[in-house]
Specification:
Elements lengths: L1 E7 L8 H4 L2 E8 L6 E10 L2 H8 L8 E2 L4 E8 L11 E4 L9 H4 L7 H9 L9 E3 L2 E5 L9 E5 L3 E3 L6 H5 L4 H13 L6 E5 L3 H12 L4 E6 L2 H10 L3 E4 L5 H8 L4 E6 L4 H9 L1 E9 L13 H6 L3 E4 L7 H13 L9 E5 L4 H9 L5 E5 L1
Parallel strand pairs: 4-8, 11-12, 11-14, 12-13, 14-15, 15-16, 17-18
Antiparallel strand pairs: 1-2, 1-4, 2-7, 3-5, 3-9, 3-18, 5-6, 6-10, 7-8
Helix pairs in contact: 6-7, 6-12
């Protein structure tokens, strides 16, 4: 079938993207689903820094590629061997497929699936196949999803069925922003009631982490960002304190507010200065958790003597250390019960034709989660 899709053919084009147009709206050929795959009618797709980092070249991927990895839609057709989904089922798409058979998967850590990571890096589906074509040539899949398109063929392992009555735009946020941010707090850090936390970088993921820290009962939650408007929203959502991360004395201010630093510092900006600040505001015996994804060549200078003498922990969190089939329904229920008001994070609703303008907003720090409606 032929579908409209946002195709990235060249990385590193300059901003503003509304002028350089790195994403071209093309009619691409989409093959039917193969064994273990499904065809999904995409209804909503969120704009995320992980997409932006491919556009800018901070995360090199094989070209050309249909971008997009955070979305919700409806199953249209199931390939051979798919027996637990049927046409009409609503699904949230997840950007790390899990094979279920490698060591991380067997240990209950599907976010670290080895075949899933390999296929994502190669631009294929979990099967190793590409179902997208343009002018007779194969087009790569973005982390097994490629949802900036009217339809997508994905691995069954990239789908989580949902029964909740919420809009596609709301549901799409649970595929990345909520799964990553909330999971970093609940799964990776295991924040307990009465502890203290700080969140650096108030995008969709950072705000989700902020909401999760509040929901977990942290007695003090400090929000840090370069945008005063986002800090104002953080206060409205329940942050006990806010600090502009651009201030030279930001670390000193946080340590003063928290009497020595926080138990958990979450770096969600994907920038080395933010990583350094997160480390400096973590108290003795505390944990610094990073879910940001800076350029692979970037390095962070860690003082080992401080880590040892202060019993500090530095941890990464990928997809919120999630088990998506377990966590997405849980987080949706928390949202419906008012514990995670992620609808407050929604930005503009965009048409596919406006997607480059949407990435300008994201790059400028003006957006949290703009959503393309398809």
């Amino acid at each position: 079938m032929k579908v409209r899709a946002a195709v990235l053919e060249t990385i590193g084009l300059p901003a503003p993207y509304a002028e350089s147009l790195p994403l071209k709206i093309r009619e691409v050929e989409l093959d039917p689903p193969g064994p273990g795959e499904v065809l999904v009618r995409v209804h909503a797709a969120g704009l995320c820094h992980s997409d932006l980092s491919v556009i800018s070249g901070d995360r090199p991927r094989p070209m050309p590629m249909v971008l997009g990895h955070e979305s919700a839609g409806v199953v249209v057709e199931c390939g051979p061997g798919v027996s637990d989904l049927r046409p009409g089922d609503r699904v949230v798409l997840v950007f790390m497929p899990s094979c279920g058979a490698c060591m991380p998967c067997m240990e209950g850590r599907p976010a670290l699936c080895e075949p899933g990571a390999a296929s994502n890096g190669a631009g294929t589906l979990l099967s190793g196949q590409r179902r997208l074509h343009l002018d007779g040539k194969p087009v790569n899949h973005h982390v097994g999803v490629s949802c900036f398109a009217e339809h997508a063929v994905v691995s069954r392992r990239s789908c989580v069925k949902i029964d909740a009555d919420l809009s596609h735009a709301e549901a799409s946020l649970f595929g990345c922003a909520v799964l990553t941010g909330v999971g970093a707090v609940i799964n990776t850090a295991r924040v307990q009631a009465g502890t203290t936390a700080a969140v650096l970088g108030l995008g969709g993921v950072g705000f989700s982490a902020l909401l999760a820290a509040i929901a977990s009962g942290a007695r003090q939650v400090v929000a840090l960002d370069l945008s005063d408007a986002k800090l104002q929203l953080a206060r409205e959502l329940g942050a006990t304190d806010t600090v502009n991360a651009g201030r030279a004395d930001a670390a000193d201010e946080v340590r003063a507010l928290t009497r020595g630093g926080v138990d958990f510092a979450f770096e969600m900006a994907g920038a080395i200065p933010a990583m350094d600040l997160a480390w400096r505001i973590t108290r003795r015996g505390g944990s610094t958790i990073s879910a940001g994804l800076p350029h692979p060549d970037k390095r962070f200078a860690l003082p080992p003597v401080q880590m040892v003498a202060e019993e500090r922990t530095l941890r990464g969190s990928y997809i919120g250390s999630a088990v998506p089939a377990r966590d997405i329904p849980r987080y949706i229920e928390m949202y419906q019960r008012g514990k995670l008001p992620v609808d407050r994070l929604m930005g503009e609703r965009l048409a596919l034709a406006d997607i480059n303008r949407g990435f300008d907003r994201l790059a400028a720090g003006q957006a949290m989660r703009d959503v393309v409606l398809l």
